[in-house]
Automatic annotation (TrEMBL):
This is Uncharacterized protein. It comes from Pararobbsia alpina. It comes from the Bacteria.
Length: 110
């Protein structure tokens, strides 16, 4: 389930508002996951088959605990950052904090 959040692509300054996890790597030894996120201008551009404006990887502590690991990762990516930063967290871990999950049949906006 993708999510929405206004985001400025760091390499170009272009705005992206639709984000989707396209790949997950699980590390059993370190109990962590790495999500690859594609950021698009909008849901319509993704639906039209356009490439993401930007792709990045974000490490998440823990392993998926649900039947849909992509939804788990996307939910983890939008969770709020802790009040007290924890050492060892990847610098981009809370890039998408505050995002909103998008329902599959929700109308899209640009």
């Amino acid at each position: 389930m993708p999510f929405s959040l206004p985001y400025v692509v760091p390499t170009t300054g272009a705005p992206a508002s639709y984000h989707e996890v396209s790949q997950i790597t699980l590390d059993k030894a370190s109990l962590s996951s790495v999500a690859t996120i594609g950021s698009y201008v909008s849901a319509d551009t993704k639906t039209a088959g356009k490439l993401p404006l930007y792709t990045q990887q974000i490490q998440i502590s823990g392993l998926p605990d649900s039947t849909d690991p992509f939804q788990w990762c996307e939910q983890m990516l939008i969770e709020a950052a802790p009040d007290q930063p924890t050492s060892g967290i990847a610098p981009n871990r809370y890039t998408f904090a505050g995002g909103t999950m998008i329902e599959a049949d929700a109308p899209t906006t640009t």
